[in-house]
Design a protein that fits this description.
- The protein has 184 residues and is of the alpha+beta class.
- It has two domains: 4-34, no CATH class; 38-182, Trna Endonuclease, Chain: A, domain 1 (3-Layer(aba) Sandwich), CATH 3.40.1350.10.
- The chain has helices at 4-9, 43-60, 133-136, 166-173, 175-182; strands at 20-24, 30-34, 64-67, 77-81, 84-94, 98-102, 112-119, 126-131, 143-146, 156-160.
- The strands form three sheets. A five-stranded mixed sheet has the order 3-4-5-7-8. It has a three-stranded antiparallel sheet with strand order 6-10-9. The chain has a two-stranded antiparallel ribbon with strand order 1-2.
- A hairpin with a 2-residue loop joins strand 4 and strand 5.
- The longest helix has 18 residues, at 43-60.
- The two termini are 35 Å apart.
Length: 184
């Protein structure tokens, strides 16, 4: 629990300006709550934040989390609940954009899930959980299959995120909604 004094005494060694918003703590005092400017993080920092964020959300949902030592197969970690195991690939994206996974690392199957974290400055991250078979089944037009035959780019699965589809994507793949489906 943050008190006013503790909040005021917290330093910011990174130099990043987080901004502040007023929030109410348990003691009833109004305190400044830091809000992140995600655009100031490097690609690597944002990715690491997303990975830890997703792990914490799975733990909160009652899963056991098993971290891989080396991420060379496109799996960031494994989760388990009720004797069901799932491989998790984490991706992060700022605002709305295109996100892709190379097919050689992301091969759709029943127990492979994409945990996609959406970041917008001064907003809390939004966590989506997309079953990999959604790409194989060509469920929605915003989920794309690109083979790039005869080109330099490697084949990939992707998701187009834009203003016209963001709310549908959030509705379909909200983390809490997908967790309930997984545990059925």
């Amino acid at each position: 629990m943050l008190s006013r004094k503790n909040l005021q005494n917290q330093g910011n060694p990174s130099g990043t300006d987080f901004g502040t918003h007023l929030g109410k703590c348990e003691e009833g005092f109004w305190v400044g709550v830091r809000v992140m400017k995600w655009s100031e993080l490097t690609h690597f920092q944002l990715g690491k934040y997303a990975e830890y964020f997703v792990k914490m959300e799975f733990i909160k949902a009652g899963f056991d989390v098993y971290t891989t030592e080396i991420d060379n197969k496109g799996i960031d970690f494994v989760v388990k609940s009720n004797d069901k195991y799932f491989d998790i690939q984490v991706k992060s994206v700022r605002d709305k954009n295109y996100v892709y996974m190379k097919k050689k690392y992301f091969s759709p199957r029943k127990n492979l899930l994409l945990a996609l974290v959406l970041f917008e400055d001064e907003k809390s991250p939004v966590l989506l959980l997309i079953p990999s078979l959604e790409w194989k089944n060509k469920t929605h037009s915003f989920l794309v299959d690109r083979n790039y035959e005869g080109k330099k780019s490697e084949p990939e699965w992707g998701i187009n995120i834009n203003n016209s589809n963001i709310e549908k994507i959030k509705s379909l793949y909200a983390f809490d909604k997908q967790i309930k489906l997984l545990l059925k």
